[in-house]
Every structure is written in structure tokens, then in C-alpha cells.
Predict the structure.
Amino acid sequence: MQFFYICGIVKYISVVRNAERKLFMAKYLIIVESPAKAKTIKKYLGRDYTVVASFGHLRDLPKSQLGIDLENNFMPKYITIRGKGDLMASLKKEAKAADHVYLATDPDREGEAIAWHLASVLGLDPASPCRITFNEITKTALKAAVREPRAIDLSLVDAQQARRVVDRILGYQLSPLLWRKIKKGLSAGRVQSVVTRLVVEREQEIEGFIPDEYWTLSAVLKDPKHKAEFKARFHGKGSKKLTISNQQTAEEIYSILEKSDFTVAAAKYDEKQKSPAPPFTTSTLQQEASRRLGFTSRKTMAAAQILYEGVDVQEYGTVGLITYMRTDSLRVSVEAMEAARLFIAEKYGEKFNPPSPRYYKSRAGAQDAHEAIRPTNVAITPDLAKQSLPNDQYKLYKLIWERFMASQMANAVYETLQTDISAADYIFKASFSKQKFKGFEMLYGDDADDSISGALPSLTKGQILTLKKLEKQQNFTEPPSRYTEGALVRAMEEKGIGRPSTYAPTISTILTRGYVVREKKLFYPTELGYVTTELMKDYFGNIINVEFTADMEAQLDHVEEGTEDWVSLVRAFYVPFSDTLQKADAAIGKMEVRDEESDVICEKCGRTMVYKMGRFGKFLACPGFPECRNAKPITKDIGVPCPKCGNKILERVSKKGRLFYVCENSDNCDVMLWDKPTGQLCNKCESPLVEKRRGKSHFVACSNKDCK
């Protein structure tokens, strides 16, 4: 009896040990979207982990048909994306060999949908703990994610599916109408059509703007006891602000002021503190990269994606440099704030730290799932990363690193002087500021305000000043500015049009489709944009508008939160849309879009060539197509002779939309420059001199990078 008892214990111990050995030797498969992300993650996990990439979606709606069952609760008909059959088979094989499969796609709606499709393809239960997410690709974040896998969030999947279905129905049923009525190849979209409308309506505001005249008066004054002069601006009469609306009034006030004494009526010395801007969200990153670096939204997001997924950095190996870049939250983890405070104290001194960590409040309606965009490791400074990064990625990383670090630093402090100066019954005002403590501006300065910087003058109430010069100038109010890319992104965010992930692709789409063009960083609507927008406003005004688009985004958020059913959302959209579509199709006649004529004559048939919009921007084409297929790039004579052969230098546009300069005698002359040439040669190396721009400064430099 005792023998059998001992055998039972031995067998039990053997079973337990085998289970422990199997658990210890368990093989884990992690699936991400991109090879770069896979490479970075693999670095942080042990040999038991295999990390592979799905290269984005494996399944999608078919391109050749609507792919939505309108009679059966709008069920999507997903198919395997062409060319991904072998990849799908490989992933199935990897999954079958693994003990645990983790789906580590991006932490947003699109990433959740990719994970759901992967689970379906691989036969995983979406309710099982197969999903892991992380806001940054670091060892700490990955280890934490692997320890706490979760089920796929079907509410997130439903939100993505609802957006996809609504946009597919709208695009696939409205676009053919545009083909029939306006021009083949056009497309319409819930977001892109509204953004086009913004650009068109801004242009209409500019065209309809009637300027108002106004005059400004300025006095150049001097304290008799000091040499420094300063300028004060006319404010009004007594305590009331006064706008000078015509020349007669300006002349009358001017003649009085010429004979008047200028006396200090009030001088208020104070100290002003300036707080840093918060860390970046997707929107503010795109705006600032546009303003400071001249990047398009697409270029910004492409560089940010690489910085997030991981790059090889000297001393660190492959590392994800920034947190997830699609976010509208200003939240920052406590660990990141503490790391920033330690770095600031060590690098700049404790006085550059604020009394307590800085917390920023996200705007109303922002999703708080992810942190603000910040460096994953503040110790990897831009200088340290510079040698490992291409120029664009370096510039963007520097911007993100400096903005985040500055957001956690102490205020800048200024000594200020606000002064009122009286002359007769009129008041002039002048403001002065002098920096007392740099604070965060040590790292991330901003544009100066209207105050006069430098040493503060010593002014006291009742002091009489010397009038050196009195200036009057006629001015006219100006129309609203055209959108830059940064301003358009800001408008999309403020009006609730789209989400952080859609800003860049939406702008790219309306440019590619030829609804708008970008000239010298400003957006102009094309004739096609005008015609399409007017049609949309006339017949689909209840759908293609800011309010509907913003409300749809809010409803998608409700689906994501699990408080609204996605099928009900789609049905509420589809029923009135379908009715409107039928009525519009019957009512709209054929509309003509005229191509803009150029002054170039087609050398093959003699017709006047027209401007066309292609994949890479505008080009010249013969209107006699298809009889005459002549087409050519747009060239512009910049009025500068070639510094090598004396022929004309022409301005052209590359396939990526970038300006470049080439000699018209390109068969025999090799002058080709990315910067505008001056027509002169460098006196040291005889390479062409070019105009350079850095921020707001312009200068002339040698085009030869090796020449100093």
C-alpha cells in the first residue's frame, strides 16, 4: 500500500514538473503592423518571443464593389487584400506553432480593427486575452503589456467599422454621381468634401471682402536725460479708444499733436511670467512642424511613425524615440514628468524646474487613451540622436523633445513697463519688456510680442518727453488669410472634422484629387473644387457640412464607449442619404468644368495648352486630347541667367511637388539646384550661389555643401 502511495506522489511531481517545464518553454507570437516596429519590440523580449508583421490590414472591403449588404444590417463583406495570401498563410503557420498569440497593433480604432481581423483569420477567440497595447515602445511598457493581455475591445472595432461603412456608402454612391454630372474620376467623402468646402468658402470670403480705411499715428519720443528713443502708438481720446477712419480726421489730429507737449500720464512697472506651451498632440505637432520646419502634415506623420516604431541610435541600439503619435490628449505619465524634472535639474539647474510638476488639461471631447506626444527617454537628447537620424527625422525629434522638456520647465520672467503718454486730449501707449529669467525659453522660445524688448526706460508720471518724429500712415483692413496646412489642421481640430489620424490623409486627398492646390504654402480652391462644393451645398448640404461631420465623430465616440449601436448609427445616416441621392440624380444636369488656359502654344497642333491636375500636381496638356496627347511640365523663367552658360534658368516642380531650378540648356549644361540661384558664382569654388531661408531670415550661400 505504501509502495503505491509513493508511486502516486512521484507521478504527481512528474506531472507538475512537466507542466512547469512546458510553461517555462512556452512560445509566444506577437503580431504588429510593421517590420520596423517588430524589430524594435524583438530587442526587448527574450528568445521565447517571435515578433512578426502583418503589414497593416490583411482584409478589407473589395475595391470593385460597394461591399456592404444594405439589406442585412449593413454587414461588410471583407476579402483578403490582393497579394497578402502568402503572408496570411505564413502567419497562420506561426500562430499554430505558438502557445500564445498576442496581437500588438496600434492602440487606436484602426489598430483594434486590424487585431480583430487577425483574430478572425488565425482562429483566435476575440474574448480571450490575446490583445496587448502600449503607448511607447520601451522595455518597461512592453513587459507591462505582456503581463496584462486583454480581450479585443469590440466597441472600438464597431466604431471603426461604422466609420468605414458610412464612408464607403457615401463615397461609393456619391462619387459615381459626380462622375456622371461633372467629371470622371472624382471622389466625395464625409471629411474631404467638408475640408474642401472650408477652403472654397475662405476664398469666397476673400473675393467678397470690402476693405475699410483706417489711419495709424505713431510718435517717436525721447527722454531728454537718456539717448534711447522709442515709439508710442496712438490709442484714443481720454480713456476711450479711437479709430481714425479717414485722412481728414488724421490730418486734424496730426496738426494738433505737432504743437503739443508729450507727457507721461502713467507708468506702471511690473513683472510678468510667461508659461510654456503644453506638449504636442497630433494636431499641434502638425501645425508647429508646418510653421517652424515647413513640413506637410503627411511628411510630419511619416517621420513621426518611424520615430515611434524605432530607429537605431548609437549607444542605445534600436529604440522607439517617441510615444504614440496619434493622440489629442495632453496627459503625461508621472514617470515621464519625474524623469524630465531630474534631467532639467541636472542639465540646467534646479531653478529651471517649476515648484511642482506641470499638468495640462486636454480640450473638451479629447480622447484620453494615450499620452501627449513626448520622448520615451529624455536622456536621448537631439544632439545624441542626430548622428543616427536622417535630417527630417532629426528635426522633428528635436521639435518634440524640446517642446516636451520646455513644457515641464519653469516660467520665463519679464520685467515690464506699460506707459500712457498724453498729448493735448489724446493718449499714446507704449509697452516695454526685459527678460529677467529665461526659464523654459532656454529651450523653446516663441514669437516676440508687440512690446519693445531691451532695457526699460526710466519714466515717471508727469515727465515731459521730446517729440523726435510724428508719423501718420493710411491702412486698409485685410481679408482673412488663406489656409496654410497648419491653419487647416487647426480648423479641422477646432471644428471637430475628422480625428488625429485623418488630418494628414484628408489634406493629401483633396490635393491629389485636384479640388485645391497649394502655392507658396497657401491653399487655393480650383475650378473643380468650386463646382463640386456648390453641387454638394445645393443637394447634400445636410451631410456635407461641418455640423454633420462633427456630430458623426461624436456618435462614433459613443459607439467606441459602448453607449450607441453601430448599426443604428449607419441606418440613421443611410435612410435620408439614399433619398437625397435619388432626388439629386434626377435634378442635376451635366455640369462643365473649364480647364484654365495658359499662354503656351502646343508645338504639335497649335492649340493653346491648358493646366491639368495630375498625381504630382499641375502640368500643361493639349486640350485636343485624345487626338493630340502632348503634355509637358510647367516651367517658369525666374529672370536669372545660368551662372555657367548664360541661358535662362527655369523653375520646375518635381514629382513630389518640390520646386527645383534647371538650365534651359539641360542637354549641355548640368546646373540643377533645389534652391533659387542668384546668377552668381561662389568666389571660392565657383559653384552657383543660391538664396537660402532659415526661419524668418534670408541669406545667400554657396550651393556646394562642402564649401564653407
Q: What stands out?
A: The radius of gyration is 32 Å. Confidence is low (pLDDT under 50) at residues 18-24. The chain has 18 helices and 30 strands.
